[in-house]
Amino acid sequence: MNDYKKLSDLELIRLLQASDHGAYTEIYNRYFRLLYVHAVKKLRDEDQAKDILHELFTKLWIRRETNLTDINFAGYLYTLLRNRILDFLGHQLVKTKYVVHIKTTSSIHSGPRTDALIREKEMNDYINKEIDALPTKMREIFILSRKEELSYREIAEKLNTTENNVSKQVNNGLRILRGRLGLILYFYFILQFLR
What we know:
The chain is mainly α. It contains eight helices and no strands.
């Protein structure tokens, strides 16, 4: 029986990749509190911090077979957490602006629910049109990354390219969309496709 507390992160990662529940539990115990404190500082909401961390560790288990042995594991977890927090804050910003918009327009229009559905459809159509306008290879990589949620390594293997190229294509795609969509629609895009 392994004494998981004595194992290094690298040893735990290798066991995790072999679906070892004890290694997963040790990683959770080792990093949850540190990540939790960081999340609470950023979110100022203990319950939301816990929810985000539970999602993060669930995703870690689901993607346990990804090669994590070549990276700084603590840094990787902090990056995952930062991205989850940014997604959440973006979602909150869109939600707040959308609620304000609905309240404002509901007093003007007689059918706010129908109007909201039409606006949502128009936004989704516009975002999809802008994604379709990306260069062919960039669009393909972008969709595999953001809609199908494949890792950069998985995309690189599938398309016979490098992870570095995949990363550049995704980042360039995000930059182009941010410029084309504007801030509000960009956050709406994050809400729809990066959850």
